[in-house]
Input
Amino acid sequence: MSATFGPGASVEQITTAFDSRWIIVGNLPDGITDQQLKSLLRQYGEVTQIRWPGNLVSPVVVKVEFAKPEQSFQAVTRLHGRIHFGEPLDVRYTFGDGNRTAVADAVAYVEWDAPSRACYIGYQAKETAQVFLDALQVKDATYDGHRIFGSFHDTHPRAGRFTIKLANLPSNATEEGLRKFGPVERLLWEQPNYKLTVPEAANQIWKMFDRRFPDSMVDFRPPGQPYTNERLRAKVHFLTAANAAAAAEWFNGRKPSCIAHNRISVRHIKMISVSIPPYKYRQLVKDISGFADFVSSQRGGYSVTVADNVNSIDIRIKGDDLKILVRMKGELERILCGEVVLQDGKPVWSDFFMRTAGWDFLKELERNIHGLVAGFEPGRRVVRVFGPTAVRRRAAQAIISKISAINSRKCTTVAIPGRIVDGFSKGPFVALRKELGDSAVSINLWDRALMVMGDENVVAIAREAIHQARVEYDRERTNYGAAKECPVCFGAPSVAEWSRCGHVWCRGCLANYLRSSSEHKKFPLTCLGDDGTCKELIPLPTARRILSPTEFEALYSASLTAYVQQRPDEYRPCHGPDCKQVYRVMPIDSNPVQCPDCFTRICAHCHSDAHDGLTCKEFTQGEELYREWASSHNVKQCPKCNMGIEKIAGCNHMVCSVCQTHVCLFCMMAFPNSDTIYVHMSQEHGSFGVE
Output
């Protein structure tokens, strides 16, 4: 992110790391010309190039590049949804999606019975039969790609005194082919289910798809060796998700003659893959494993797999419904990146967290809520919680309650005479904080006011401290000419710094004023002359000359942070932990944005995690529906791992599906085994709660 600053450290222009000079303009009619499109877009800035698709299929979609990012932003915000050329335009930013998250939804998985047969080999001696079985284990035996499974067979049919059964043989297996694994004395064969090899069967399936969908099938990947199951699986890639869905609907359950009328299963499986660094996976492996267990326990065949790519770890979520996958991915993102505590869609914050008491409060929360990690980012003024879903929710509720309690305390503003601000802040204010507590009083230097939290007695103590400071100042003050007084310390300027308005500062006082601005974030910075009413802005060269490079950078970074925080309808901070990037607020249902620094993917309209495949409204309704469902179904959290537990029927002895903890649903106590929990329920609750 970069910015242009003016006098007083004011922000004049921002270019975010998310900004792009490229936009996509869709829903254009056939026959539209380059000149017509440029004429429409030119009002928002200089159009440097337009990229037309190779095949102009109606409606037309083109990529447009502007000279500056702010011009493309104006085009997106003002054109999206507006009617031009007779149709509402679909105008969006185009962002690189990086390597962090990938969505694959144009794939269908085909399963069918493998062509195979079984046989029975009889032996007079058990030792000879064992030699054959041992050979299968040692050699991890395969026959034409089929993994052979062998075991002793004690029922009909019998081929000898000792019989072994071999399963998953290819349909064209022969006695000669079996002898390479060991001795064969007497052999009985079962008929194959159909007489094809796996490559031949896969080729027939491919031809079947190609005949039905010749223009939309991109790739057919046959089953890979070794063939270890009775069912084979092939992967079919299509041009679009709609093509894959159509193929699944057409072929699922059919019994094609090419594989002897064996039933095939075709599922349109979607996958979302999230890539993270190996060190992050090691840190969160327990939470990720809990997430995977939770997903696999849901109905519908959803699953999570982890792939180690050496330099990165891919976490892959698979299932039928992309909307459900998106919500699962959102939960995974919150496990990986933490969750900003929100109330009514906005981050909750209090300067209480920047003091020792606030830090102690968060550490106490961590001790009381198993699996919680909590922290805050003062630059972004947010509190972030890490851990499983139930853990984060409990922590967020506690944090919101704490901030509400703090904000409910009465706040009184007591004016401080401008001439005593410097002296009061150095002595009496320190003593006042020691007497009343750090959170009870704070100084607003710009408004020359003391902020007091408490009842009338506390306010009276604060007023008396200000009165005594004024009496002390009047007693000791030497009367300098107004033109020679520093507007901060009201003494004769030491190492004078002249302002263009004619006021003179001590260089040290001006430096302290600029340094403190980094913390208080009230911009633009003006001269404090004429008892704080002077409006002259502090020039940028003056700040650069007086401050060290580190202090100068901190001042302008604080100005940029304040500028963003004061404009929540224009800019929002990236969701990534400790990430300093910001993004522009986008129109509803815009493409998700991805941070170039931390790779977090965000919906720039509703400010949630990216919800590919869902509109903002659908995503928000889904979250609300889940909370309503959990509340109406009396879902409780496991006291050990905090996963949700729902009682459907039976007694109040529950076993967590994730950590296998035995739980009493009456009081949510955890027990090591079922024996102790039944004794507990009988003694403490008088029944087992059977319904």
